[in-house]
Amino acid sequence: MSAASSQEALRREVRDWLSQNVDAGWRAAMTDSEQEAFFALQKEWFSELVKAGYATPHWPEGWPGGGRSLAEQKIIYEEVARADAPRLILYFVALYHAACTLFECGSAEQQSRYLPAILEGEIWCQGFSEPNAGSDLASLKTRAVRQGDHYVITGQKTWSTMAQYADRCLLLARTDKGERPQAGLTYLLLDMRARGVTVRPISQITGDDEFAEIFFDEVEVPVEDRIGEEGAGWAVAQTTLASERGLTLVELSQRMRYALPLIVDAMRRSDRLDDAAIRRDFGRLITHVDAACALADRYLLKRISGDEAPGDASIVKLYYARTLREFTALGKRIAGLDGQYHRGFMRGATQETGNWTVDFMNSYNWSIAGGSDEIQRNIIAERMLGMPREPRDWTLKGQGA
Amino acid sequence: MTPELNQLTDSARQVVAGLGLGLAADEQEAYSLIAELGWLMVSTPEEQGGLGMGLAGACALHTELGRGLATVPFLPQLLAISAVSSGAWPGQEIWLESMMSGERRVTTSLGESSLTVERDGDGAMKLNGRAVALASADCASHVLVEAADGVCLALLALDQSGVRITARPTWDVTRRLFDLEVSDAALDPQLIIAQGESASLLRQRLAILRDFALAADAVGGAMALLEMTVEYLQTRQQFGRPLALFQALKHRCADLKAHTEAAQALLQDGLDAVTDREGDVIATPEAEMKALAVKQLACSAYAAVAEESLQLHGGIGMTSEHDCHLFLKRALLNEHLGRRQDSYDRGLADRFIAGLNQA
């Protein structure tokens, strides 16, 4: 069978499976829901996807569901978006960040210890960002002090997605005050049930709490749970951050395309279906959504052919974030006063739910998290356009670098 | 892009660079050169003696011509060739050959027209009305006319009685546009290319081709101008440092880059959506929507780059000594060629909503 026809067969197979297995009622069930219901739905959907072999297409050959090409992974994500299936956000860090880091940088022993548990539903979170180390991640201060056969961790992490549910944490900590801030970092796998770990969910402006802070009070991590050498954590962290390879934005931009009828619903509800000004702005939005899809698509094709250039990923993310803001802002505008009345949010939902003020507020996730728009613009300007980077020692008088 | 397209792009870039930017090139010489290079044959199928590179080939050339602010009226002739090559009509072979070689020149309206056809008692067809934005019409012997109601597409001799062209100088000096006024001009039955249903399908295909071509021109112009602006910011020093070091300016350039890349991605992506296996344009509602989106985004990106570039160049950008204004004026004109500017956005929304209602 040719690559094209086997891909077409995969698309059909995934589409059929999704049409039989996605519970169309999930959105209603997740609206105004309790955490327990969310947890249960994620768990169930995860185990169904694992069983069908669609949770781990990016894993290497030999693992259940693994060995799929990037082109095949893209098909699975496109179909998931098309079927409006729930997003697997509870397991995302485990399936992508943890697994890919283990595959690329972990020892054989670490792989056999942690990867099967991920397939059985172990939940992971990421411990990278800190209150004073966001965009400037390398300046992080959580300390790991070597004492015999373990490290002792003290410090605080924040913006850790789903940390309150997590069994394990991918931790980036400082073992040394190196010459360069990146040099003294070490990558550890931390048991979230260990003594000294405290998790505090962060209450978001929408009422949701997808993120949490994690406090470490002399938490012990065995040395065998270190990934890579001591001091090599920055490079390992880059592997973690590169693990999803543009697939998320293929999925999310496709979901945004399928969500365009929500705007038409809003127009109908507010009796403004024939409003010329809104139609014009909607037309512009359709174009931008189309372009966001084209960018995400072409980026993935470049990755498949090995033609990715520095800054390409930043363009995709920046453009998606701006378009999502435009989408949700237009919905909010059309909804008018109705959109301002409080309505409970949808747990673990996609970015577009038709609860416009919530959607609008949530759109900031994409312009802030994972490298803010401003960071993306720096990358584009410096690495694509070749504009100079500002000198490191630009500080106000009396303050150190 | 295929290797053939990359090759075409590379050689076109060299040719256009050799011509020099904008008015540096003599329009007639440039025209002879591109005809000699076979660019006029780019989209015509191989079995009709063309290069068979389809819409993608045409867009690759338009992108490069846009980069160089080329004055050569490539698009009107290409649209006319596309019309002449479609279907089967009496003069097809002769006209196609002489137009692809550049020997016969036909202009086409790049704007909206309001031409109508009437049949008199003996069945002779008479044309009336106006068309705008005929590029370099004074160099053409004929014009491709489309009756607004889709009744027919035909070639009309510009020197026949009842036909008048008037030069309409634009702010964009890289184009020379003309108005066409027709009163009771007889249509030569030998020069009718399509009628009825096939005429309206052809009309849609030409509109898609035109929108993609303008978009490609815009993408090329936006890329060239952004490169020029970044280079200027790197060179110009104020407060003891290059302007390119200021984050406020870098971020604006980054946004323009994202806008331009998005337009290019949509254009490339759209090529597949609006063409068949041979690379020829198909007239489906989806293809039409794609063309609206592609043209709208590319022209808005070009205009955004042009408007910001003028500002980023400071005072020098306001002077006619600098090339900045040439890009700005071409960008602004591109926004208004094709359909009415607002009708792109509106058209997309209307078609989307109609599509939902049908589903």
Describe the fold and architecture:
The complex is a heterodimer of chains A (401) and B (359). Chain A has 401 residues and is α+β, with helices and mostly antiparallel strands. Chain A has 3 domains: 3-87, no CATH class; 124-236, Butyryl-CoA Dehydrogenase, subunit A, domain 2; 247-384, Butyryl-CoA Dehydrogenase, subunit A, domain 3 (Up-down Bundle), CATH 1.20.140. Chain A is built from 14 helices and 8 strands. A 4-stranded mixed sheet of chain A has the order 1-4-5-8. A 4-stranded antiparallel sheet of chain A has the order 2-3-7-6, with no helix packed on it. In chain A, strand 2 (143-147) and strand 3 form a beta hairpin. In chain A, helix 10 (276-305) packs antiparallel against helix 11. In chain A, 44% of the residues are buried. Chain B is α+β, with helices and mostly antiparallel strands and 359 residues long. Chain B folds into 3 domains: 3-100, Orthogonal Bundle (Butyryl-Coa Dehydrogenase, subunit A, domain 1), CATH 1.10.540; 106-197, Butyryl-CoA Dehydrogenase, subunit A, domain 2; 199-358, Up-down Bundle (Butyryl-CoA Dehydrogenase, subunit A, domain 3), CATH 1.20.140. Chain B contains 10 helices and 10 strands. In chain B, the strands form 3 sheets. A 4-stranded mixed sheet of chain B has the order 1-4-5-8. A 4-stranded antiparallel sheet of chain B has the order 2-3-7-6, with no helix packed on it. A two-stranded antiparallel ribbon of chain B has the order 9-10. In chain B, a hairpin with a 5-residue loop joins strand 2 and strand 3. In chain B, helix 1 runs parallel beside helix 3 (54-67) and helix 3 packs parallel to helix 6. The relative contact order of chain B is 0.12. At the A-B interface, helix 9, helix 10, helix 11 and helix 14 of A face helix 6, helix 7, helix 8 and helix 10 of B.
